[in-house]
Design a protein that fits this description.
CATH superfamily of one domain: SGNH hydrolase
Distance between the termini: 70 Å
Number of strands: 5
Largest sheet: 5 strands, parallel
Order of helices and strands: HHHHEHHEHHEHHEHEHHHH
Keywords: Membrane, Transmembrane, Transmembrane helix
InterPro entries: SGNH_hydro, SGNH_hydro_sf
CATH architecture of one domain: 3-Layer(aba) Sandwich
Helix content: 40-55%
Protein name: SGNH hydrolase-type esterase domain-containing protein
Pfam families: Lipase_GDSL_2
CATH class of one domain: Alpha Beta
């Protein structure tokens, strides 16, 4: 292979990985995943009193789609321009004054990085109801988490809770969304000097600080070949240690901390992913007991929901990285370009709770909101 092609190939792959943070250069955005199985949708009917009119379960509005498109083209254009410029510098055979030569570089690059740019754009959308910077004085609850908290590629549970309180005419304060796509527990603990946790801990919360992290930690662990990764017990011990550190940092100013067990990966109850998820939940509960935090059994609630609705567990969809990545790459285009709702995507995929085996739809929004509302005592609070 000529040296110039080696440079192009290597840098293109590097940019694609960097852009998506999850090797999104799988080129799977061109078509939707085939539905794995069709399920009865009667059990999926929304509780209208619980989630009616909430943006997290409806199709994205025009303003949100426009915001995503702006972020998409900003990232997309920057990466394509960077790669094209690098290719001009590294390959003496490229003539920058020739538009045709530049197009031969830019067009394949644009296609290559489109999935990653779309996913990255979701991470840059404005948090809803409000972000951490806007709730610096006081709030009802601060939620620290990953994409399941941010709610730009998954149901926005924080927004559901805020909407419920609003319709009950409860003026409890702000619901602060400090979620971020791709965030793992190890990121917030090792990010010196743990600025996210310190910032969140400074906010005076009437109902508490909620920490839900672990899904991306598990994804990263499972993505490493078995021979190269630590044993399950070693990894779980380290996860519990990180959770202990994060909870301590979050509660350093005396705020009440709620530790949430992450929902499972996939929907196959008998899978190794569920077994690891159950063990993670057990370790989180032990940490919560040790530190005097409140434990929120979200994992257990999801398992109970799936167990009650699956007629044949053997046909349930199991998580795998190769199934998840194409679904993730397609998801932003379906949400913000085709303007499909999460419920539509979930139904077309034939899934009960998830929309891509990791992120969740409207059933999860209601389920998680019910669990959190009860633990936080929101329903009992006076208007």
């Amino acid at each position: 292979m000529p040296d110039c092609l080696r440079w192009r190939f290597g840098i293109a792959i590097g940019i694609g990985i960097l852009t998506s943070h999850l090797c999104s250069c799988s080129l799977a955005w061109g078509h939707f995943l085939p539905a794995r199985r069709r399920v009865e949708v009667g059990r999926k009917t929304l509780d209208k009193d619980a989630t009616s009119g909430v943006a997290s379960v409806a199709a994205a509005n025009t303003e949100r789609c426009g915001e995503w498109q702006q972020e998409l083209f900003r990232i997309w254009g920057s990466v394509v321009a960077l790669w094209t410029g690098l290719d001009c510098v590294l390959d003496p055979g490229v003539r920058p004054e020739d538009p045709a030569a530049l197009l031969k570089i830019a067009l394949p690059t644009a296609f290559l990085v489109a999935p990653g740019a779309a996913v990255a754009a979701c991470a840059r959308l404005k948090p809803k109801p409000i972000g951490l910077e806007e709730g610096m004085d006081s709030a009802a609850v601060v939620f620290v988490g990953d994409s399941l908290t941010q709610g730009t590629v998954s149901a926005n549970v924080v927004e559901v809770l805020a909407d419920r309180c609003k319709r009950r005419q409860q003026h409890l304060g702000d619901f602060v969304n400090a979620g971020l796509n791709f965030r793992a527990l190890e990121d917030v603990v090792t990010d010196p000097p743990a600025e996210l946790m310190k910032t969140a801990a400074k906010i005076r919360c009437s109902h508490g600080l909620v920490l839900q992290l672990g899904s991306n930690d598990l994804i990263r662990y499972l993505s490493v070949p078995e021979l190269l990764r630590p044993t399950e017990e070693e990894w779980l011990q380290n996860y519990a240690k990180l959770m202990h550190q994060a909870a301590t940092q979050l509660g350093c100013n005396g705020g009440k901390v709620f530790l949430v067990s992450p929902p499972p990966l996939g929907e196959a109850l008998s899978s190794p992913e569920f077994r690891l998820g159950a063990e993670m939940a057990r370790r989180i509960e032990l940490v919560a007991t040790e530190l005097g935090c409140s434990y929120v059994p979200l994992y257990e609630a999801c398992v109970a929901y799936l167990a009650a609705g699956q007629k044949d567990p053997t046909t349930a969809s199991r998580y795998s990285l190769m199934d998840f990545l194409p679904g993730l790459c397609v998801l932003p285009w379906r949400l913000y370009a085709a303007r499909q709702s999460l419920s539509q995507i979930q139904e077309e995929q034939g899934l009960d709770l998830t929309v891509d085996l990791v992120h969740f739809g409207h059933c999860y929004a209601k389920l998680a909101a019910d669990v959190l509302e009860q633990k936080l005592g929101l329903a009992e609070s006076k208007p």
